[in-house]
Design brief:
alpha/beta; 277 residues; 9-stranded mixed β-sheet; 2 domains; Spore Coat Polysaccharide Biosynthesis Protein SpsA, Chain A
Length: 277
């Protein structure tokens, strides 16, 4: 069993996939599994990926190249990848981002040392060669409950790409997967935060989140905004329903309010677009 499995969806990232793949195959952690899933990408992304993989012969037997039968979106691709993963721990990586070479080794060792079920690191948000900001935890050395509440309330990033978790958390009966490709990280991270018995944090910006004008959140047009709003509302309903089962209700609770905020923001943007016509 590999120590860490990484699930990487691939769609229209020919400008970024080489940087991403090189950063993954250059990890100092040796015992890994890489699962790249082609979501029917119309460009040269998979061709470029295969060329990069050929430069890392030691990683070839650790790498799986899978494909969706039809274009299915990020949420569905991640679900398939997580189902295929065989590692002790799992994490996802977006193929237009990249990671520090020490990321997975450091997170895995921290998980073993602390006995945590979930370990996360800072995220460095980048725009080209420029660092825009760093997403981190509040000051101090928060314990598991502070980290849990930080994720649930939105005070700590809800991205799943900076969270290494024991695979068994995703395998819990009734684990809920997102309904669409917006706020999909929230659906999973909220459940992971609730299910993890112990959480830990590494204050290093190992994950590099890069702005991509082709990503779902940057697509313009009335129809695209309508789809984003529908996905956000659907995922917000999943989250708030789950939180109520965990005792975070009714809607006056700060945690549930925080989980509804993304949908409210998308609704405001959608209405603004209608009024501007």
């Amino acid at each position: 069993m590999p120590q860490v499995s990484v699930v990487i969806p691939v769609y229209r990232v020919e400008q970024y996939i080489e940087r991403c793949a090189v950063s993954l195959f250059s990890q100092t952690l040796e015992d890994m599994e890489f699962i790249f899933i082609d979501d029917c990408s119309p460009d040269r992304s998979m061709e470029i990926l295969r060329n990069v993989l050929s430069r890392f012969p030691a990683r070839i037997p650790q790498t799986r190249l899978e494909a969706m039968p039809v274009n299915s979106g990020l949420a569905a691709v991640r679900k398939k990848g997580l189902g295929l993963a065989s590692g002790d721990c799992v994490i996802t990586c977006d193929s237009d981002d990249y990671v520090d070479s020490e990321m997975y080794g450091t997170l895995y060792r921290t998980l073993l040392r602390t006995g945590a079920d979930l370990v996360q690191c800072d995220i460095e948000v980048r725009d080209g060669d420029r660092t825009v900001r760093t997403l981190t935890a509040p000051p101090g050395e928060p314990d598991s409950e502070h980290l849990r509440y930080g994720i649930l309330s939105g005070a700590i990033s809800n991205s799943v790409c900076n969270k290494l978790v024991r695979r068994e958390l995703y395998q819990r009966p009734g684990f809920l997967f997102p309904a669409g490709d917006l706020d999909e990280d929230n659906v999973m991270s909220v459940q992971l935060a609730c299910y993890a018995r112990k959480l830990a944090y590494v204050r290093k910006p190992f994950y590099k989140a890069c702005r991509n004008p082709e990503s779902v959140t940057h697509r313009r047009g009335k129809e695209q905004k309508r789809k984003r709003l529908q996905a956000s509302l659907a995922n917000s309903r999943i989250i708030t329903g789950f939180l109520r089962t965990q005792g975070y209700g009714p809607f006056s609770q700060p945690v549930v309010k925080a989980r509804m905020r993304p949908a409210a923001l998308w609704l405001r943007e959608f209405l603004r677009g209608l009024h501007s016509r």
